[in-house]
Design goal:
Number of helices: 6
Strand content: 25-35%
Radius of gyration: 22 Å
Largest sheet: 5 strands, mixed
CATH class of the largest domain: Alpha Beta
Distance between the termini: 36 Å
Shape: globular
Mean pLDDT: 88
Number of domains: 3
Structural class: alpha/beta
CATH superfamily of the largest domain: Metalloproteases ("zincins"), catalytic domain
Low-confidence stretches: 1-11
Number of strands: 12
């Protein structure tokens, strides 16, 4: 098919390439017998095309060409928002609660979990510790701090909102800051620990409000507004941060 190059298939997904709006674009193609239309999704993984199992190549190319400018624009937007790769070396800056910590890597016989000392996060490695070990210890520290703080904020706001969540869990979702299940489980993204507390509180309030209204109706936003009058400003600020 002109303009589309087929390559290997992995776990039911094909990696392809095509020319859209003058740009060479790679994408993942997934077929499903449950789909009735062709859908395009763009996130930090790039372009994913979901299409019916027996849809024709002609239909696929028509949809791609029709959405070409939109695809290129959205992909460029994601690329601009992509954070710079973090290098875990002495003096590296780490986001924490809307501020920055300076990383200190200590190598020697003393090995222990990462510890915050003022504006410094200390990671203790053996003499043979690698950057991957530093990244692991930092991630463990973030998770520990996040769970502790999230539980505190939920404990503060839940009584004010007259709700009782069944459990608080950490999430590593790529596109959601938080979610609340019908069973009462509240999941908060560990990446929130890098943001100011005011934004963490907004997400906590938002998810707890779902224990009152499992939707985004006017009633739901009234619940949020009662506890967080500046929710519109905070929601816009959080959206600007991006996940």
């Amino acid at each position: 098919m002109p303009g589309s190059l087929r390559s290997s298939t992995t776990l039911g997904a094909e990696q392809r390439a095509t020319l859209l709006a003058g740009q060479h674009i790679t994408y993942t193609l997934k077929r499903s017998s449950k789909r009735r239309s062709i859908g395009l999704r763009i996130d930090d993984q790039g372009l994913t095309v979901n299409m019916p199992l027996r849809a024709s190549e002609k239909w696929l190319q028509e949809v791609l060409q029709d959405k070409a400018e939109w695809v290129v624009e959205k992909l460029q937007g994601w690329q601009e928002r992509k954070p710079a790769e973090v290098k875990f070396h002495d003096g590296a800056a780490l986001d924490y609660l809307g501020d920055l910590l300076s990383l200190r890597v200590d190598r020697g016989l003393f090995v222990a979990p990462a510890q915050q000392r003022g504006k410094t996060l200390c990671v203790f490695l053996s003499a043979h510790g690698t950057e991957q070990h530093v990244a692991r210890d930092i991630a463990d520290w973030y998770r520990s701090q996040a769970l502790h703080l999230f539980e505190q904020r939920v404990a503060y706001y839940a009584p004010l909102m007259n709700v009782v969540p069944r459990e608080i869990k950490l999430s590593t979702a790529r596109t959601q800051w938080g979610c609340c299940t019908a069973s009462g489980s509240v999941r908060l993204n560990v990446q929130l620990i890098k943001l100011p507390v005011r934004l963490i509180d907004y997400v906590v309030i938002h998810e707890l409000a779902h224990l009152r209204e499992m939707n985004h109706s006017a009633e739901f936003w009234n619940v949020v507004r009662t506890i967080c009058p500046k929710y519109l400003k905070l929601r816009a600020e959080l959206k600007a941060v991006g996940l």
